[in-house]
Structure formats: structure tokens, C-alpha cells
Amino acid sequence: xxxxxxxxxxxxxxxxxxxxxxxxxxxxxxxxxxxxxxxxxxxxxxxxxxxxxxxxxxxxxxxxxxxxxxxxxxxxxxxxxxxxx
Length: 85
Hints:
It is a single chain. By secondary structure, the chain is an all-alpha fold. The protein has two domains: 1-44; 47-85. It contains two helices and no strands. The longest helix has 35 residues, at 5-39.
């Protein structure tokens, strides 16, 4: 039992070393997060296209399609979605 002094010291030194390395990793991560949030603007998400938005369809084409649907269905039809196939 007298020979346990050195292994115990090495064990405690190893635990302290691991603890210090983890502290450095956490501090570095927090520093990087702070710097990115401080100096770079947040990214804006792309605009979502809703059901009423046409995307790349021209307004004249939309008007022509809506008029054709109105004439064909005698006013009972409604253009809900236009898809290119």
C-alpha cells in the first residue's frame, strides 16, 4: 500500500489535465460563437413562394389563363395553382 503515492499523483494530474483541456475547448467554442454573432450578420432565409405567388410566370400569361378559365367555366372556375409540366 505504500507504493500507491506516485500512481495516485499521476492519476490526479491526468484528471486535472483533461479538465483543463476541456475548459480550453469550451472557452474557444464560446469565443468563436461570440465572434461570429458579433461580426457577421445573420443570414436571411429565402422568400417562400406562397400559393398566390407566380414565381417566373408573367402577369400577362396569368391574366390570359385566368380569362380562359373564366370563359370556359362560365365564371364558376377559379385558378388556384399554375404548374409547368
